[in-house]
Amino acid sequence: MKRVIIIGCLCALGILNAQARQDTLKYRICLKDKAATEYRIDKPEAYLSPKAIARRVRQGLPIDSTDLPVCAKYVDEIRRAGVRVLLTGKWENFVTVSCNDTTVLERIASLPFVRSVEKVWTRPARGKRGDGQRDTLINRLDSLPGRYYGAGEAQIQLSQGNKLHEAGFRGEGMTIAVIDAGYHNADRITALANAKVLGTNDFVNSTEDIYAEQKHGLSVWSCMAMNRPEVMVGTAPEASYWLLRSEDDYSEHLVEQDQWAAAVEFADSVGVDVINTSLGYYTFDDASKNYTYRQLDGHYALMSRQASRIADKGMVLVCSAGNSGDDSWKKITPPADAENVLTVGAVNKEGVLATFSSVGNTADNRIKPDVVAVGYKADVIGTDGNLTTANGTSFASPILCGMVACLWQACPTLTAKQVIELVRHSGDRADWPDNIYGYGVPDMWKAYQMYLKEK
Fold first, then answer.
1. Domain range holding 160?
2. Fewer Cβ neighbours under 10 Å: the N or C end of the chain?
3. Is residue 262 domain-shared with residue 177, that is, in the same domain?
4. Does one domain contain both 392 and 305?
5. Mind listing the pLDDT tens digit for each residue in 405-442?
6. Residue 204: CA atoms inside 13 Å, Cβ hemisphere, count?
7. Is the residue at 8 inside a domain?
8. Minimum mean pLDDT among 13-17, 22-26, 47-51, 241-245: which range?
9. Across the strands, what pairs with 31?
């Protein structure tokens, strides 16, 4: 839930925030080039972190023009036109701004380096703000003697991830970024106190507290990060985590894809190996922006284009397929249509498809979902600190994501794209993939054995 914003604070920060709240429109400004950049491809240390460079070197990946920051000269000129710059996206070369005056954007659109301008957000007439109250913590966790994984046993055993753990691959040394809507109470829950959090970042509103936001990200993260033997052990209990927020739970606009793109680039910059996102979009508050089936080609949506680049930067993206299997849409939701990602559908703990799980294929007939994992009655942590269950491909994705991190720990010589292919080919339907189960339930121990055989 949102915290109450107290109007009337006279400090400089309060005044700035009040001005920001007056903005009624946000725009994505796509640029033509990076011709005015002060950076060079052969000098990446000026704009990429040592970890990001090392990842590319290790996987033999080139540093190219998409890695160059958005030209500061262009950004400054856009700012001087009278808008507030919110975000920049270097891979897709855009600037996201807010303002109240459409004529300002008309002037910006005429600048020689601007390719296009698109409205991506309109302030809702009535925002549904929360009261900022945290849930009461109970933290009453019952152990299951003799069952090491506790409540999480079935969801890791379905894909044999427990065997990777037994072999010593529990995610240590791997960094996972979770991009979601909020992590309500995650900083106060005893059951997650020993999870390794490297940091947080909010790409929706930097003045908000992601631990007082929506609970979805908490449940998602707990599938991987829990490390309480005989209570619940997640699929990557020794990995390190960045908790990032890109989803604005109070409206549904294209700007959330700009925020997601910025979060992905941040994950790259801090040396993340694997990204989980349990977000997807196909309808918006502005219905004219809604997607159609023919646009599910991995390139139409900004989010899908961004996702399709992630493996080229040496990271693996694991994303939810969507929960539209029971409704009229039925199909996967961007970024699930992206290339070179692992899109995850949902099954129950016996491997039977959950009826809500979105189906493929993509518009250009690529297999989607890629694989499936437990997403029906998945075991997660609730905002009160107790174990509970949840339904959705939102949970199938992190359950698999944690195991992918452990597999990559076990197979360190592989590139991101090779990890994706290995997971696909370990699926129980790898010889006859379809648009419902994809390549099926992956066997992570089989994938490891396949790696050792080919090594």
1. 153-454
2. C
3. yes
4. yes
5. 999 999 999 999 999 999 999 999 999 999 999 999 99
6. 23
7. no
8. 13-17
9. 114
Q: What is the pLDDT of residue 207?
A: 72
Domain count, the chain: 2
Amino acid at site 238: E
Give the domain CATH number at 222.
3.40.50.200
- Residue 105 sits in the same domain as residue 221: no
Select from 30, 19, 28, 4 the least CA-distant residue to 100: 19
Boundary of a domain, candidates 122, 144, 178:
122
Q: With 50 as the cut, is the pLDDT of residue 125 above it?
A: yes
The pLDDT > 70 percentage for the chain reads: 92
Both structure tokens of 353: 């498809």
Contact 179, 270 (CB under 8 A): no
pTM above 0.70, yes or no: yes
Q: Distance between CA 287 and CA 254 in Å, rounded?
A: 11
Q: How far apart are CA 33 and CA 71, in angstroms?
A: 9
Per-residue pLDDT tens digits for 78-110? 999 999 999 999 999 999 999 999 999 999 999
My answer on whether 171 and 62 are in the same domain is no
Residues 6+ apart with CB under 8 A from 352: none
> Residue by residue, what is the 3-state secondary structure of the chain?
CCCCCCCCCCCHHHHHHHHHHCCCEEEEEEECCCCCCCCCCCCHHHCCCHHHHHHHHHCCCCCCHHHCCCCHHHHHHHHHCCCEEEEEECCCCEEEEEECCHHHHHHHHCCCCEEEEEEEEECCCCCCCCCCCCCCCCCCCCCCCCCCCECCHHHHHCCCHHHHHHCCCCCCCCEEEEEECCCCCCCCCHHHCCCEEEEEEECCCCCCCHHHCCCHHHHHHHHHHCEECCCEECCCCCCEEEEEECCCCCCCCCHHHHHHHHHHHHHHHCCCCEEEECCCCCCCCCHHHCCCHHHCCCCCCHHHHHHHHHHHHCCEEEEECCCCCCCCCCECCCCCCCCCCEEEEEECCCCCECCCCCECCCCCCCCCCCEEEECCCEEEECCCCCEEEECCHHHHHHHHHHHHHHHHHHCCCCCHHHHHHHHHHCECCCCCCECCCECCCECHHHHHHHHHHHC
CA gap 278, 177 in Å, rounded = 12
Residues 172 and 36 in one domain: no
For residue 182, being part of any structural domain is answered with: yes
Note whether 117 and 157 are same-domain residues. Answer: no
- Please indicate, yes or no, if residue 127 is contained in any of the structural domains: no
Residues 109 and 157 in one domain: no
